[in-house]
Design goal:
The chain is an alpha/beta fold and about 250 residues long. Helix content is about 55%, strand content about 10%. It contains twelve helices and five strands. Bound molecules: adenosine-5'-diphosphate (ADP) and magnesium ion.
Length: about 250
């Protein structure tokens, strides 16, 4: 049963201390802890627990499709990825400055891996993030249009400190999506960071957005303050399959 002190701590919002009260009291009396150290421990524990809760809340609301870590990224396999640029991005200064990071390259070269790693670092540093695939952008736009909530959608995508859109260009955007995309990019311009990944070079973005003028306006804003990772090279997925013997390493004649 909860004692009165535990209840009062809970009412004050000191949930962590309420949960651990018995252990904390026992430990303090066993080790002859000073009043100052005891109070300090309580405040530290509660602060840490709250920060941990906020971190997991931010992690959840970012809707990352899966976890990836930058420590698992092999630079030797992908020499076109500059480790120095990756490290600079991991400082998250671009987020504070409302800049963008664009990852271009063929399938399997690590674009999504890097994008998720950047998001994880940003969330860990206290920033809010939201991850969307281009496919989700299209379906969310259609849903919002039928419900008459497009305005709300643009606001929702303008809010997070970092907005990630993965797989831009795998298929062309319809007119509605292209327009909403432009609105989001314009609203975020110079105050909200974005990370985009695409298998299409910028020259081909006219086709992606179905309109050269619109694509130019989007790129103009996106590229003004941004760093592009142009990743060239072999697919990591293929390398793994080759290693597993599913493909011959070299085709022999
Ligand atoms: P893309 O988004 O460019 O199509 P992914 O990021 O999905 O590629 O990478 C495909 C798979 O290969 C993922 O499991 C990813 O973790 C892994 N991968 C890609 N590049 C590397 C790399 N340089 N080092 C380690 N793993 C990698
Ligand atoms: Mg990908």
């Amino acid at each position: 049963m909860k004692n009165q002190l535990e209840e009062q701590l809970e009412n004050l919002g000191w949930q962590e201390i309420a949960n651990q009260l018995d252990d904390l009291l026992e430990n303090a009396s066993r080790n002859n802890v000073s009043y100052f150290d005891f109070l300090h421990t309580l405040v530290l524990r509660e602060t840490e627990a709250r920060q941990g809760n906020l971190l997991s809340k931010r992690m959840k609301s970012a809707k990352l499709p899966y976890m990836k870590n930058i420590h698992d990224f092999e630079y030797t396999f992908q020499p076109s990825v500059s480790e120095q640029r990756v490290k600079e991005t991991l400082t998250c200064r671009y987020i504070a400055n409302g800049e963008n990071r664009i990852l271009l390259g063929p399938p399997g070269v690590g674009k999504t891996h890097l994008a998720i790693s950047f998001a994880v670092e940003a969330i860990t540093q206290g920033y809010t993030a939201l991850f969307l695939t281009a496919d989700e952008v299209v379906s969310e736009c259609r849903k919002a249009e039928s419900k008459g909530t497009l305005h709300r959608l643009v606001n929702k995508w303008s809010r997070p400190n970092l907005l990630l859109i993965d797989e831009v260009g795998y298929f062309p955007f319809d007119e509605l999506t292209a327009n909403i995309f432009f609105q989001v990019v314009s609203k975020r311009y110079e105050n909200g960071a974005m990370i985009l990944t695409s298998n299409k070079s910028f020259i081909e973005w006219g086709k992606v957005f179905g309109d050269d003028v619109l694509a130019t306006a989007i790129l103009d804003r996106l590229l003004h303050h941004s760093v592009t990772f142009n990743i060239k090279g072999e697919s990591y997925r293929l390398k793994e399959k080759k290693k597993a013997g599913m493909f011959p390493a070299k085709v022999t004649e």
